[in-house]
Design a protein that fits this description.
Shape: globular
Distance between the termini: 20 Å
Strand order of the largest sheet: 10-9-8-13-11-12
Radius of gyration: 19 Å
Number of helices: 11
CATH topology of the largest domain: Hypothetical Protein Tm841, Chain: A,domain 3
Helix content: 40-55%
CATH class of the largest domain: Alpha Beta
CATH architecture of the largest domain: 2-Layer Sandwich
Order of helices and strands: EHEEEHEHEHEHHEHHEEHEHEHE
Number of domains: 2
Largest sheet: 6 strands, mixed
Mean pLDDT: 91
Length: 293
């Protein structure tokens, strides 16, 4: 009989994966926060700045915060606290086409063979799903770090990541939509669905009406269109939401009736900085139930 693998693997992530502290603790995921700059002051996402600070800043200054990944030097110091103790680090964060975070982490990985960096092609709890999956594989003691990386790379292209945005104000301020689109959306009460396609954000559908009805249609559409989920879990992630908004989304997922776990998380300051209030999405891995563990 082959010797049992005894893993010394640490799963790490950046703060854009938007999971709760309870989930980080349960899955033993260690976080390095992104930076958020308001005016001339810089903060660390989830440490000394919260989404409410973002809304206050934008309301007062009419300017969006600036957000950024940690430097290779910061990341090297972060990873070394684990690799110096003999651990392999598997690092998961926002997709490479959305931030320099992947590039900076990869710089460190080139110098340290015990650091492995995953391109999730996703953001927010879409990346978080892969972090939880990686943690489960590591905890099983069945796989080496290299085998876990292989499994993560195979699943990354199947992360179903999307959000509905109530207002385009933040996207307009950030240069991601035109004034014409902003005015048209406000006039017609359009709520666009932003989807990750090949690691880039695209608009796939435009819903019309109040946010609650739009979210109901959105959930139904997503589950019909992307209809081969891994039913282990599904995420509901939002910046702000009314109780009615959350209830209608959860209700439609429960009607579908196949997910073993529904997790609800609130987006951090980085994602909030780009989307604004009343942004909500459902996120899941759309690659079936078999062969992952």
């Amino acid at each position: 009989m082959a010797d049992k693998i005894i893993n010394k693997i640490q799963i790490t992530a950046d703060s854009t994966i938007d999971l709760s502290q309870e989930i980080y603790d349960k899955f033993n995921i260690k976080i390095i926060p992104f930076v958020v700059t308001l005016g001339d002051k810089t903060y660390y996402d989830g440490v000394d700045i919260q989404p409410s600070d973002i809304y206050d800043h934008v309301a007062q200054t009419k300017e969006l915060p600036k957000t950024g990944a940690r430097s290779p030097e910061d990341l090297e110091k972060f990873f070394s606290q684990f690799t110096d103790k003999g651990y392999d680090v598997i690092h998961i964060g926002i997709g490479s086409k959305l931030s320099s975070g992947y590039e900076y982490a990869s710089v460190v990985a080139k110098e340290n063979p015990k650091v492995h960096v995953i391109d999730t092609y996703a953001l927010s709890s879409g990346s978080g799903l892969l972090a939880m999956y990686a943690s489960e594989l590591a905890a099983s003691n069945k796989f080496t770090a290299e085998q876990i990386v292989e499994k993560l790379n195979a699943r990354a292209q199947h992360t179903q990541t999307s959000f509905v945005v109530e207002k385009l104000n933040y996207l307009y301020k950030g240069g991601r939509c035109s004034m014409l689109s902003l005015l048209g959306a406000n006039l017609l009460r359009i709520k666009p669905c932003l989807q990750l396609k090949d690691g880039k954000i695209v608009v796939t559908k435009k819903y019309i009406g109040n946010m609650v009805n739009c979210l109901r249609k959105y959930v139904i559409d997503e589950l019909i269109t992307y209809n081969t989920p891994d039913h282990t879990r599904i995420m509901i992630t939002y910046t702000t939401a009314t109780e009615e908004m959350l209830n209608v989304v959860k209700e439609e997922i429960e009607k579908y009736g196949k997910f073993k776990e529904i997790l609800i998380t609130k987006a951090g300051s980085v994602i909030t900085s780009h989307c604004g209030e009343h942004t909500l999405g459902i996120l899941y891995l759309n690659d079936g139930d078999e062969g992952h563990y």
